[in-house]
Amino acid sequence: MNFSEVFKLSSLLCKFSPDGKYLASCVQYRLVVRDANTLQIRQLYTCLDQIQHIEWSADSLFILCALYKRGLVQVWSLEQPEWHCKIDEGSAGLVASCWSPDGRHILNTTEFHLRITVWSLCTKSVSYIKYPKACQQGITFTRDGRYLALAERRDCKDYVSILVCSDWQLLRHFDTDTQDLAGIEWAPNGCVLAAWDSCLEYKILLYSLDGRLLSTFCAYEWSLGIKSVAWSPSSQFLAVGSYDGKVRILNHVTWKMITEFGHPATINNPKITLKPAPDRANPRIGIGALAFSPDSCFLATRSDSVPTAVWIWDIQKLRLLAALEQLSAVRCFQWDPRQARLAICTGGSKVYLWSPAGCVSVQVPGEGDFQVLSLCWHLSGDSLALLSKDHFCLCFLETEQGVGTAFGQRGDHT
Amino acid sequence: MGDWMTVTDPESKYISQYTSETKMSPSSLYSQQVLCSSIPLSKNVHSFFSAFCTEENIEQSISYLDQELTTFGFPSLYEESKGKETKRELNIVAVLNCMNELLVLQRKNLLAQENVETQNLKLGSDMDHLQNCYAKLKEQLETSRREMIGLQERDRQLQCKNRNLHQLLKNEKDEVQKLQNIIASRATQYNHDMKRKEREYNKLKERLHQLVMNKKDKKIAMEVLNYVGRADGKRGSWRTGKTEARNEDEMYKILLNDYEYRQKQILMENAELKKVLQQMKKEMISLLSPQKQKPRERADDSTGTVISDIEEDAGELSRESMWDLSCETVREQLTNSIRKQWRILKSHVEKLDNQVSKVHVEGFNDEDVISRQDHEQETEKLELEIQQCKEMIKTQQQLLQQQLATACDDDTTSLLRDCYLLEEKERLKEEWSLFKEQKKNFEKERRSFTEAAIRLGLERKAFEEERASWLKQQFLNMTTFDHQNSENVKLLSAFSGSSDRDNPTVHSRPRQKKPHGAPSGSPVCMSKLTKSLPASPSTSDFCQTRSCVSEHSSISVLNTTPEESKPNQVGRECTNQKWSVASRPDSQEGGYSGRSSTYANSHVEKDDLP
After folding, report:
1. Smaller CB count within 10 Å for chain B: N or C?
2. ipTM computed for the complex
3. CB A241 within 8 A of CB A225
């Protein structure tokens, strides 16, 4: 395992390009594009103000930098460094900005979620989408980039619009039977859309691509409901994490629950468990994070009532495979995009890697403390970017043979 | 005696005193009084004696005594008086008698007194005992009463508690229901309020939106150096109805593709599972039938049922393979047949378990159980045979393919040349299909034949040697027929590896088959083969052996004298019918070698008797 030099970073803005060739990072108002392997600076762009959000286009040719405070979006081209584009929302303000899957349109969400403006880089046209819903996950694109599902709210009712991305035509528009739609997400196969209600009611609805309601799932009433949702990459399973500390797996054939995974606090040291304040909103209980491995064989979960533990479930056998307990709260974990390997960081200076063969923990070298707050994998799974508050560094993982020897016993405690 | 006398006297006086005053006192009182009175009497015995009778009052005392005694029924103390006035003389004898009587009486009384006293004591102790018992029982009764009261009290308390708890539970349930109602009502209230606020918010948003739009802000714009081409290089298209329809079509296509893909996956999975089930069923059947045959061989009549079961299942198999779709009836048939086989297998395994336990208990004397070494030997033998058969089948297949290839080429070239000879084409096709069917049949038969042949080849070898030795003997003793060659009849056991399920087992009765040429189908080797010597002369011996093949008889036919021909012919016919292919081991008789080469022949050749 090799570590690169430490470079400056701000706001944890560090992203690999989708084709894996470049790494974009932000330092205040500058955007630095480096080569993903050598970390040599390829391009350097300067924006007008501090950057809050960066995003690569799907074809890795453009990067957008969103400056929310100024209501600006600046787009840079990698092929033509002198090309520039600036989108100014003016008094409408800007709260969110993202690319369309074809890499030629930018969707800006204005302040107060008044509207979504679709700016085209190809033509002069501008489209407006009214009444977008202000929720956790209101915009979702299919994996093949054909369709966009958008959550809307009109007259105190929730709706979902399905638009064709090629010409922004409205394909389907239907209402959802939810009190307060909290999020929508396409299945990886692009044929099923999951929509779930806010935590006041446990309800998740499954819609087909043509807008038909396929199924509804409700595990219990009254108590706080769904906290997190994840599709398996094969689209066979839908994992629903809720505030009662359980993950329920639904299968794609009947959309019924096939199993539920509990996260009891008893196996852990009770001293470490945080006691949530019962009379506050958004309590720190329940399953806050869910992620499937790329082969759909494993599911990693984190229960917010025991934030120091990551639970790994074997989906083939539908049982717990490992519970990794850390010394401090787990901040972020992410699966390797190619194989079943999980990287975990807790805010300390160590990175933890788990695979079915075993666990390993690596100390980030360097003078001073490198507090790993977040991480992201390169698409090939060969390297891992570790982000701290002011810096980032790259961790190059050895080839499979090397990694195999690096893994020791299957230790659960680090 | 003196004491006695001194004691009795005062007593008697007392007695008389007492009795004169009280006529008939009760015995107890009497005895008590006597007891009481006896003590003070003993003190002043002497004084008392002198008190009653003194020197002066002898006559008076005598008369007094006399009176008393006569009143008691004693005879008078005086002699019989002669006259009234003369003094009556004391009758000493009477006095003595009276004294004696009185003594006897006294003794009796004492005895009676003793008895009464003992009885009194007894009764007293009984009384005491009874009183104690009574006291104890009274105590027990008291304690049990108290206990009962205590338990009743506890029971009452517990019932109270129970009632309280029930009440509490009911209260809790009511509270829960109330709270749920409260929650529901609050929820509706909040929803209502939320909606109201949201409407207000929407109004604000609309207002703001209007303001924003109205401002005609020049600043809301996009500055771009130059427009970028589309990702796919094409031009943008106008939004028309056609494009709408096209989008719809594409969406439906995507959905349909997904459904088709999923259905394919499910069908594949179904087919695989069905295959697995069918294979399981076949294996179960194969597992069960050789073992089923073994115990049933003892009873010939039951083999019929075994065959019918296997046939039934084989028939089902073929039916199922034909309808390889998810037909309801086919599915049911499959599951039913599997269940049936499974039940049979289970019962069989249980039987085996019982047998095993019996063997362990009783020792190794069960016929059905083969010893391990025998079993292993048999399996080795069978493996060898299988190897040989496989090799043979390969060579045969090659030959067959060659033939087919040549036929195919001929077909195609003829078609090419004479493309308008459709009729011929059709005919050729029909013949071809016929040929294929025949080939299949021949294959089956061949397989069975080869297996049996191989086995017999081995036997034959061994038998050859024996025959040689026997022939020597025969030549030496030409005239004497050794009819009792029972030692040459060997039993080969457990050729149970015959995997030919398609053909039913046939017990070929050589006697019955004598006149006929071809047998029904292809007789399959049974689990017991018997070798019989050709000259096994008592035809009874020969015919009784159940064998489909007795090749050795044919060998000997060619060599032996005509006298033995008759029994031999029978055996020979069997062999002729049996097989076409067998890689005969060397040293064959001339007649035989001719037969061994052909493979797909079901011809029956009859040897000429020498």
Report:
1. N
2. 0.80
3. no
